Amino acid sequence: MSGLDQIDSYVRDLCIPADPVLDSFEQDVAAANMPAIQVPAELGKLLGMLVRIGGARRVLEIGTLGGYSAAWIARALPPDGRVVTLEKSTKHAAFARSFVDRAGVGEKVQILVGAALETLPSLFEREDPTFDMAFIDADKASYPAYLDWTLRLVRTGGVIVGDNVLRAGKVMVPGDDADLQGLAEFNRHAASSPLLDTLIIPNRGGQDGILVAVVK
Questions:
Q1: Cα 161 from Cα 147, distance rounded (Å)
Q2: How many domains does the chain have?
Q3: Does the pTM exceed 0.70?
Q4: 57 in Cβ contact with 82 (< 8 Å)
Q5: Where do the H-state alpha helices sit in 16-132?
Q6: CB-CB neighbours of 83 under 10 Å
Q7: Which domain holds residue 34?
Q8: Tens of pLDDT along 99-117?
């Protein structure tokens, strides 16, 4: 085990209690022949802490995958809270529905199936109550567009979080890689926007990072 892996294990063992449902996620997705690319447990806990700190009641998630991060978020919400999570794959959405139900938060999670850039305008047009927080963890090339939509949908004082924003520093020289270009533009836009107060927090020993922004 590398030094960085040892640090990750130390943090998880110290700060994250064992949970039979959450801890089985990797085995469950492997059995379902799905990619095991969920957020690490420490980021899941941080998302839940941000929900509690901000008093969030409505959270938008872009990119459900298997429902792991949605479960962390939903567990931190008050009884009448709701996560609206967007997932393109019907297979992933079905797995996520089963997972959040087993995690005991199914009634707090609404999964909308379809391409996020098609679903987001419909959320805006419905004139639903604004969201208190948004978590972006989907296709990286579309991050700039997702940021534009979350700025319309998240209230003043709300929080926008983006995952995987450093890519071991490759975003600094993205070249012609569409995903890296999308992440680099997302970072620049969030950092320079007069509407946001933004910080990028490295994690995984600097191999990646999350962006956290407060809507002014």
A1: 10
A2: 1
A3: yes
A4: yes
A5: 25-31, 41-54, 68-76, 90-102, 116-125
A6: 29
A7: 3-215
A8: 999 999 999 999 999 999 9
Amino acid, single-letter form, for residue 130: T
76-105 pLDDT tens trace: 999 999 999 999 999 999 999 999 999 999
Residue with tokens 């009884």: 79
CA distances from 137 to 10, 89, 129, 186 (A): 25, 14, 22, 12
What is the token pair recorded at 42?
């420490």
CATH number at residue 64: 3.40.50.150
Instruction: Write the DSSP symbol of residue 141.
Output: G
Q: Is 181 exposed, middle or buried (0-12, 13-18, 19+ CB in 10 A)?
A: middle
123-153 per-residue burial string, b: 16 or more CB within 10 A, e: under 16: beeeeeeebbbbbbbbbbbbbbbbbebbbeb
Query: Which run of H or E residues covers position 208?
Result: strand 208-215
Task: Report yes or no: 75 and 105 within 8 Å, Cβ to Cβ.
Answer: yes
Place of tokens 């393109």: 88
